[in-house]
Design goal:
The protein is mainly beta and 126 residues long. 6% of the residues lie in helices and 48% in strands. The termini are far apart.
């Protein structure tokens, strides 16, 4: 059984930083595309950043390029999202999702993960 568990969300002031973690069980990260998605109230779910399992290729939404960095540690079965220069527009529930044998771009653009975590709230406010 595959489980994805996010952690690291919270309240941060504009300009601040947070690091999200997604621990996977029952899933081989080196054979799966895995990524971060977010959904703000009244908005569609957005693919924020994804990473391919086979070659580590990454994808970033335009809105977060240069501010967010995705990484993964296969040995720990954990994916991370380092978020810097946070702005109120980044406020959302952040979810991790995975899909075996898919690329980072395909996962983020399609938003079709086979497995989803429960989400973690990120609030950027002064």
């Amino acid at each position: 059984q595959v489980q994805l568990v996010e952690s690291g969300g919270g309240l941060v002031q504009p300009g601040g930083s947070l690091r999200l973690s997604c621990e996977a069980s029952g899933l081989a990260l080196d054979d799966s595309g895995i990524g971060w998605f977010r959904q703000a109230p009244g908005k569609e779910r957005e693919g924020v950043s994804c990473i391919s399992g086979s070659d580590g290729d990454t994808y970033y939404a335009v809105s977060v390029r240069g501010r967010f960095t995705i990484s993964r540690d296969n040995a720990k079965s954990t994916m991370y999202l380092e978020m810097n220069s946070l702005a109120p527009g980044d406020t959302a529930v952040y979810y991790c999702a995975a899909r075996p044998r898919t690329t980072s771009q395909a996962l983020c653009i399609s938003r079709r993960g086979d497995y989803w975590g429960q989400g973690t709230q990120v609030t950027v406010s002064s």
